[in-house]
Amino acid sequence: MKYPVFLKEAGVIGFAAPSFGCNIEPYRTAFDHAQEIFQKLGHACDLGPNCYEGKGTGISNTPEKCGQELTDSYCSEKSSVLISCGGGELMCEILDYLDMDRIKAAAPKWYLGYSDNTNFTFLLPTLFDTASIYGPCAAAFGMEPWHPSIQDTYDLLRGTKTTFQSYPLWEKESLKNEENPLEPYHVTEPGRLVCFTGGSEEATDENEVDLEFSGRLIGGCMDCLVNLLGTNFDRVPDFLERYKEDGIIWFLESCDLNVFAIRRAVWQMEHAGWFQYVKGFLIGRPYCFGQELMGLDQYAAVNGLLAKYQVPVIMDLDIGHLAPMMPIVCGGLGKVRVKGNVCTMKYEIF
To answer: In the prediction, which pLDDT does 198 show?
Structure first.
């Protein structure tokens, strides 16, 4: 696995919009302020041509222009890291317009984003053996003040911190809107991990949870992963074989999927052979948190199919669409420690 160089003290931060751009509020003002904050931290900003665009369908511009921007921005020697402006809906359509040969030949660069950005954070390690970071997009860095998770992500980009813990509270309802574009995360809900161990279909009592496991981290937003599955961009079987000695830790979360769609997504990944050599599953809070349909809740939707692997299934983690989110090094080696309601992630980046 190739690990990019960390952001230096006066390193340049690049921005691109392969999914949504920051063309409407509250994202435009938040993105502007994020650039001001980064500049105060000593970083120049290098913006791609689509950062403020909203001409596309589900993305910032046409698939051709978005593919060109992402290729150019990733391969550019101007910036040290590249942060996506936002998530969206149809980033998958730009993949045909990426210059894969240029990207493969380019110096590895940290790419940061989540949600629709799974279309690149996932493909960098599985296609090119290059680690990426699954974490907040550009506008989140414009909040005042920064939530500890935002500081953690910046510290990871800088290489000053490689061990992270889950956060005590999470955001059920955001207060960020057009009138309050710089509003920080509105964290009100106590974090509570739900852990299934040893193949049990019953959650382990939180007071008895104390476990460790390690492996190669891979995953992202299930909404996007099931679209990639079975396409010419699906090189997961080859990736699993390359890193089977490390074992695999899957991190998964969802945005638009209801509990039945989550169950179907897990079934599809399982039957594609994606869960070979698995050492554990890290499952983020789904955007449909607390939903139950016809007796199926978010826990049975996942663990009902994964219990057979008899590995830890840790649910309601700080990953994904319900903030805050721990930054995840996709493709990297990680050591996971779960004790009670605290998850600690340590990355071995070398």
So the answer is: 86
